[in-house]
Design a protein that fits this description.
Elements lengths: L1 H5 L9 H13 L9 H17 L2 H27 L2
Keywords: Membrane, Transmembrane, Transmembrane helix
Protein name: Holin
Pfam families: Phage_holin_5_2 (PF16079)
């Protein structure tokens, strides 16, 4: 399923995936931010980054949402595979 999402992400926006992944890991270790808020913070950062990278507001919002979704999905796949609960 992850590959299906990635085919819709432009090459310019792919650079956001590792950035959002690392930011998500850093946010996970902050005591003042609840876990449920991390995807929302990543979404705001992803959309902002998408707009800055793509240049067009609508396309940037779409790319930001797709990149954030792919990043969160990838994190969950890795996390669930390693824990196997």
């Amino acid at each position: 399923m992850n590959n299906e999402i990635i085919q819709f992400i432009t090459e310019q926006a792919l650079v956001l995936m590792p950035v959002l992944f690392v930011i998500g890991l850093l946010l996970k270790n902050t005591p003042w931010l609840a876990d449920w808020a991390i995807p929302w913070v990543l979404l705001v950062l992803g959309v902002t980054g998408g707009i800055l990278i793509v240049g067009d507001a609508l396309q940037g919002i779409i790319q930001g949402i797709l990149v954030t979704g792919a990043t969160v999905l990838t994190h969950q796949l890795v996390k669930q595979t390693l824990s196997k609960n």
